[in-house]
Amino acid sequence: MSGKSTRQERVPAPPDGGYGWGVLIASFFIGFIIDGCMYSFGIVLPDIKDNFKETQEKINLLSSLNTGFLFCSGPIVAGLTNQLGIRPVVMGGAVVTALCYVVSTYSPSIYLVMISYGVIGGISTGCTYISSLIIIAQYFDKLQGVATGVTMAGSGVGAYAFAKFSQILIESFGWKETLIILGSIILQCCLLGALLRPVPTKPKPKIYEQNLVEEVHTFSGSVLSLNEVRNIQKKKGTGSLIISILKEMGNVSLLGKNIGLLFITLSNFFIFSGYFIPFLFIPIRAKQLDIADSSFILGLIGLVNIPSRLGFGFLADARLISPINLNTLCVIMACGSLWSYSFLNTYNLQLLFAVWFGTAIGGLNCVTTPYLKDIVGMENFSNAMGIINLFRGVGCFLGPFLGGIISEKFSVVASFVYSATMFSFGLIFAFLVSFGIRFGLFRTASYKAANTNEI
Q1: φ, ψ for residue 261, nearest 5 deg
Q2: Which of 8, 22, 56, 450 is buried deepest, with most CB atoms within 10 A?
Q3: Helices (H), 367-411
């Protein structure tokens, strides 16, 4: 056998089952833990605020920084997983995140908590969560849609379970002990990550070399084309890989070439400026209304996410309604729920809001990939998803901080008005894209709505 053949490059061979089901279960529980802790953090914030005696806007920066850096960590995760492999990145991210939770309880200043939980914790959370979704794309090909849907369902279940769990911990122990316990639970992702063994490989066929574009999309963001990262590393080394990652994070030139992408990016920026306001302020508003069980309201938002994602995902795949129009419909639903919030002053009406808003954001999150493919095509999908999530991250940085300022100067209800206003701006741009695609203004070669019966 020649030396050339023995060094033949190998590529992933998705088994679409087998050990992949074990990987699927592990990824499900990673999402269950990571997103469960993240979405229930609003329950802990009031106690942190009282401890440090800080304003609401400063306290909200904890969530702003954490979610913002999570959204922007995709290119970093791509580089790390290519250098080290998925298993060590998941496990290492879990260790760092757990330490960030524990260290935050010993911080004498809120600014140190911002660094430990917000910045470092946001990036390390992305390492664990995004990497666990990358491996799903490697293990499943024909069943990738189902596998991804099941994995993402872990987020909804976790949001429901951890909201009540965090409330019990706060009432029983206090915020410091709660963060330590949550950190110890996050540490269990190390055990789950150990189950994520590398996918089986096969010799690389010639057609693979010519046509493959490896892209991975997750709820939290997109990563660099893994092929691009691999080629850069082989040719130029680690230094050039880091430079390439930084360039990818700041590469927004596609916005000037595609007005449809520009408008939907602006829509996402405004939407995510208001996205996390309910998760942060529902516990505060519930306390004002003398509602004892605010954790169930938050948990219900996560719970209805599950059927919502599955339902809107099915509609997007079936093409009965175009993905971009499904997105616009979801934004309309979210706007309606947020604008009506100031009138929802009873426990049952708060639950109604949770179902309404949770259904809307569940749909928003599951149609991003199909509508982006329609707008920019597969050849620009990776870059477009990176741009979208960069602007989402900026929105997450600004939104809770501004919402905190508004709640301090006016009222908690005013922060929901701010969120509704941001979603309304997002709706304007989403509607412009729907209108433009419907009448052929933004349509690309990859968009096939003209040849179907979709709305």
Answers
A1: -65, -40
A2: 56
A3: 368-376, 381-409
Bridge partners, 203 (sequence order): 10
Q: How far apart are CA 150 and CA 147, in angstroms?
A: 5
Query: What is the residue whose two structure tokens read 């620009």?
Result: 380
Longest dimension (CA), the chain: 77
Percentages helix, strand, coil for the chain, rounded to the nearest 5?
A: 80, 0, 20
- The pLDDT value recorded for residue 448 is 46
What confidence tens digit (pLDDT) does each residue in 138-159 have? 777 666 656 766 777 788 788 8
| Average pLDDT estimate for 369-380 | 73
Residue 362: pLDDT band with limits 50, 70, 90: confident
| Residue 11 phi, psi (nearest 5) | -130, 160
d(CA 226, CA 224) in angstroms, rounded, equals 6
Residue 100 tokens, joined: 């960030």
Amino acid 295 reads: S
User: What 3-state class would DSSP assign to 367?
Assistant: coil
Residue 332's closest CA among 423, 259, 246, 400? 423
User: Phi and psi at residue 218, in whole multiples of 5°?
Assistant: -130, 170
Q: Please name the residue ranges forming H helices in 319-342.
A: 323-339
How far is the C-alpha of 396 from the C-alpha of 71, rounded, in Å? 9
What 3-state DSSP class applies to 218? strand
Only one residue has tokens 């849609």, namely: 145
Cα dist. 338→23, 430, 450 in Å?
Answer: 38, 17, 34
Q: Is the pLDDT of residue 219 over 70?
A: no
Q: Phi/psi at 173 (nearest 5 deg)?
A: -125, -45
The answer to whether 26 and 196 are in contact (CB under 8 A) is yes
Contact 174, 47 (CB under 8 A): yes
